[in-house]
Task: structure prediction
Amino acid sequence: FLGINDPGFLLSRHRPLAISNCPTTSSDDLPLQPLAAGRWLRFLGKLLPVLRWPPQACPFLLLVEIRQSAPAMGIECLVLGAGQEIGKSCVIVTINGMRIMFDCGMHLGHSDEERYPDFSLIDGSLDCVVITHFHLDHIGALPYFTEVVGYNGPIYMTYPTKALAPLMLEDFLRISVGRGVEEKFTAEDISACMKKVTPIDLKQNIQVGKDLQIRAYYAGHVLGAAMVYAKVGDASMVYTGDYNMTPDRHLGAAQIDPLELDLVITESTYATTVRDSKYASERKFLKAVHDCVVAGGKVLIPTFALGRAQELFILLEDYWERMNLKVPIYFSSGLTKQANIYYKTLMSWTNKKIKDTIALQNAFNLKHVVSFDRSQINAPGPCVLFASPGMLSGGLSLEVFKQWAPSEVNLVMLPGHCVAGTIGHKLASGKLTKLYADNNSQIEIRCKNVNLSFSAHTDSKGIMDLLKFLSPKHAMLVHGEKPRMSILKKKIESEMGIKCYDPPNGGLVKIPSATVHVKAQTSDSFAKSCQSPNFSLSRCSTSGAVLSTDLASPLTVTDDRVGEAILFVDGGKARGVHKDELELELIVSGEGKPQVVLFGHCFPIRSKNLTNATGRLGLSGSRSLLKVLALELSHLFPQVDVQNMGDFLQVGSFILSVCTNASCTRRSSEVPGDPSTTCTYFCCSWCMEDEKLALAIISSVRNSL
Amino acid sequence: MEQQVRSVCELSLDAEKPLCLQFMASMRSLIVNPHTSNSTISSTLEILIRSLQHAGDSPLRHHALKLLDDIASLRPSLSTAVFDGLRSSFYSSLSAGSSTFASEILATLASLSDKHGNPEIELDDRIFVSLCFLPSVTGRLQLLTNAERLGIGASVLFTVFFGLTKDPYPYVRKAALDGLAGLSRCNEFEDVGLIEGCFRRAVELLRDAEDCVRSAAVRVVIEWGTMLFAAHKEKDTMGNVVFIQLCCVVRDMSVEVRVEAFKALGKVTESMVSEEILLQSLSKITGALEKKIAQAKSSEGKKENRSQAQLTSRVLQMFASNGAGAFLHGLEDEFHEVVKSACCSLRKLVHLSAEFAAQASNLLINMLNDHTVAVRLEALETLHYMAGHGLVNVQKEQMHMFLGTLADKSDIIRYAARRTFRSVKLSEVDCFRSSVSSLLKNLEVHPQDEADTFSVLFHLGRNHGNFASQVINDVCDQLEPVFEGTLSLDSANTAAYLVLSISAPLSKDHRGKHIPPHLYSFAVTHIGRISLGLGDIMDQTTLLTYLTEKSISASSVAECIPEEHPRSPVVHDIPSQDDNKSNTTSWQLVPCESSGNIAATIVSYNQNDDTDILKYLNLILGRVRDIWLFGKSSCNSEALRTLSACKEEVSMYRPNSPESSGACAFTLHYVQVLAKGNVSCWGTTLTTRLSATISQVESLLQEGSMEPSSFVTQVKQTLNQAGILSTAPLFFKKLADTFSLGQFTLRSKITHVSAELVIPGYDSHHPLPFIPGLPVAIPVDITLHNISSEGRLWLSLTSDDGQLTQVLFLDPNLQVVSVGAKMKKKISMPAPFYGPPKVLNSARREYIPRGLSDNIAKLAIRRARLQPRETRNCPSTELGRCLGLLFKNWALQECWYYWI
Result:
């Protein structure tokens, strides 16, 4: 049964009036010509959001949504990094001609050319760059891109990102220099680059040029992380960056408004992992640390200076405070010190709990956490030390590890995943028993080790939750491992019924359909009819609802006023009129002569039942098919007279025939189905007064074949 | 001023001009001023009502309505007039076609009828529906919000509400949904299709763009979902569907909706949701569920039950991808409101499944690590609730977390943690040990928590008697006072362990008996701090008695009491209490003794106190009978000691109700008299006393028309013979031998008639000064218990030397100062006492030193006693029949006289 949510019908003013069906789900080419040529469009549904406008603004504007394919309009995504991998996030998105770069990261696993995104693939100029957060795999290549490659346009990032990013970049540079690796940019480049950055606030509308609008939403993950909404004309999309759907100690959960979106590009780090309670891992962490220090041991926590370190600081600080522990907690990096100052001032970016208690105490005022001096490595007594880098890949954390590892009372706590090949990874997998110290002497590893995952990325359920909340028309996955991404991709496609892409680096994805909104003035009588309720209750056994039981026929309600108007487009101006006014409008536009409006529809049916009859469905074949149909219809609709006129069936003004004209104007696009069966088209037309009957017959024809 | 404004208003009305804003303002000032005369107000009211009808479409009508509302709320006497006026202007505005205003008036009417209890507005269904269909959105909104107060039929309301859930205006949709949620309570809908339609519409609106609509939809989903579950054929599926739909909402971006969703989840009842679905709401990991979906899918192929299987697999699929781990999400939420709401509904759902409760308690214990006090508190409260219902079983690996809360910095958390610990069940002795040591450590850090910690230790020990005695036996040596070193007796630790050892023998499982008795004597030295901690359980005296007895007696008593005759171990389990109750419940722990030993204790709980006390007293009476037999076999001193022990035992009760206090007093005297009777020597006055008693008994028996017992007859005969025979003592000895004490059982209520007399400021050391020859007013305070107002009393005052006795009649009806609860009256009056000078000379004990006045003497009263004037009332026949001779006599005395 064609109901309120069915797509609109186009009808032309010329005789015979062509009516085409515009399916919502298909992205294939749809006829926009009738509309452009100043024809009629009758539409159903999709008006709800518009009618939220106050009725006083009458005659108000209607926004009519027409799906169409226009080569010049649409979204095109070029993946420069983080395509089927984790690292160097960089996606170039062209929306209706405007080109945006989302993130400009570097890959830490490579030290060659692969480290940076391949900027040579960019064809033409960029309108802006948006950075989601300060992690190096999202911002690492920015100084190179601006100062070396020479991008000179606007760069947007949130305030915390702008504050913390230079710390990260400079620290990275320092470590590289320490290792003797020469980077493609210098400290001067970093500061020059940061000067070009425009900081933005959450939910602040930024107008870039005339057409592009961007807006940042809270993403959790790290301080200042944002999801970015971009809109050009009628096309809009969201690039999530990294995000977290569950709150942690210092950050809240991602928060976004319900938006009408064509595309969501989401990270998929944990495309297949479902994480259970965060409380459990916190408990394990604290118990391990507590047990160790109570026994007089030293705890080494190798971690990167920003992000998780602060999370663990707060966790331990809070625990120390509650349990009244006096054991010192050290952190080793100067970077952390400076970062903590920023964290303290950027309270508005933390979660609600921290904001609530700010009046009493700033959660980042760490009483128990003090900075570390190398001389304290072998000081007696228990302590907890946060040392960078994580994964024990070198630097102080490795140095301390070598000193502490031989003692059984000590503990090494690896708070995150360690990349294969690092000492951290070996330790976590239990394979490390001996280690060579600098002076070639051997160290026995006797200390305990615990590996816990404190991830700030959302898990697969979180990704699905966000996508379902936003319900975009297309989805795209980046920032994940290929096999997992394809599992998630399938899941999204099957559960949400939308197309999902997971392009590799260098891949180009074209989102063919974009949305066009037509602004239309309404006629007074339509506006008036919209104001008064006009609902009707009926009992019908609908299917497709979430819990159709087919056991009872539940009561349903329809309210025509919010769904029905007739759009009249003449000379580029659109007007929505009430259906009672249609005739009047026709007379006006038909230069005074009354015209009959015929609705038409040409629909395909794929059915195995028809295979023998179709293929070369001759005249006799179609006649016999119509005969069968006539018989069936007269059974189904005993109250009307079904006339078989040989070449067509007639019921009142409703006429149905088998359509052989490949370029039939009433024809809608192909319906998806088994391509091995051939399509048979049925063309029909009817007058307005028989509309309900016509729709009923069409649906029963569809069902019976 | 008042007159001026009034006349201006009237003038303006006469001129048929619409009111202007300025006049409205002056009117308002009149209305809000409490000194404005009533007549002015009523004329203002009239003007306003008239203005409503004449004002046309003026925007001022709205202000006029507000003013009328003000009048009704500030002058309740006029609210009816306002109501009537508004009603008439409602109909007039209806007929004038001004529908928006009509619905505005309706809204005011509805609020008035709410506030002042005015009669309901009986609105015609047709008018209501036509008003609803008008274009005005505000009007529609007001109508919907007040619809339930307008007396509209439920079916009409349903149609309107249901239809308007399609309204494009979100607030109208919300109001319609709220209306539907309200309608679910009226139980008028039985059509499954209708209910399902409403449910489905609400489910659709769970995806609405507006927060307020979504949260209203959640309420409708649970209300109508419950109805659908009740009405639908396929209950299992429907119940799960409702639960799952709600679980899918908990990830909403709006806090309000999430809170509402958890509230709704708490309303899910037992049979609605299957256990596996319930369990899955605690975990995001859906392994088990996926299997189930695969099963459901494979059974889709089968013909029978196909649609059912399809539905099941579809619903489960939806649950697996959206709803799984709903509670986990709720408990981890950033917003405290959501966490709170999730905890609240968890509290309700834990009763549905033991497995669910166990997993939920795991989750909650993990939450105890959260960094917000509010969240930790909420988790603890929930755990406390669950522990009260025996649903918390702490695992070893969780102990760390759980014990952490005992050492928390926040005292609210520590308090809540201890509250939880009182009722928690620990599975292993190690857990018990660590709990105790944590509590002790906490005691060191926070000495201010001592009292509460002791109380927790006591409860812990009672709950785990076995563990407690193990722990005590381990640390027993450390508890010995070492006088050479530091005085460890003072440490809180020792006191804490002693508390534990006190609690162990009182354990519910009767397994904590093996406590070295000398510990109790140590405990006596800590009595102050211990009793402070156990204040809610027993008072200091009780504790002291308990400790003394415990330390004297051998510890083997518990075993020597045969199980089939549990004379004393009447340890009542602490009933699982609700949060509200637990604060108000008072506990009494009364140690009791058997043959001088503490056998066990009674923990009486004041709710069912009476029957327990009766039971217990009967036990004592039984014991007394045994002693009587014992006494007859000439072990007099032994029997006496036991009797006096019994006496002490009974006197230790502090009954809460007058009934039990009567029974206690009776038993006490019963024992006392027995003790006397047992040792009384055969004096010369015996014959006279006996005959007096017998005559009293006879008169009593006559009143109760009862036959005298054989013993009474025998005594009578002996008395008659005693007058003649010289060998009377022999006869009496024989008589005493023939007497046997029957088992006396207290069955029904005994009223203890008694009075207390106090002469304020008087005792034998401070005699009352008076002038001989002049009457003196002696202030007396009399408290009467259970004395009816018909009974008349007399007060006799006897001077010190017994030479002067004066009697004063009291009419309780006249002199009562206050009547307390339960037949308790207080009389406070001056009693005149007059004695002639010569008598007083001998009566005075002290002379006022010369120099003041020879004539001033002091009066010492030897004995003041109250006696009833009438002695007609007698004890209940039931009681009389049970009494042996001696007791009857005593009972008679005691019921009437209470000596001070």
In short: DSSP finds 17 helices and 36 strands in chain A. The first strand of chain A starts at residue 9 and ends at 11.
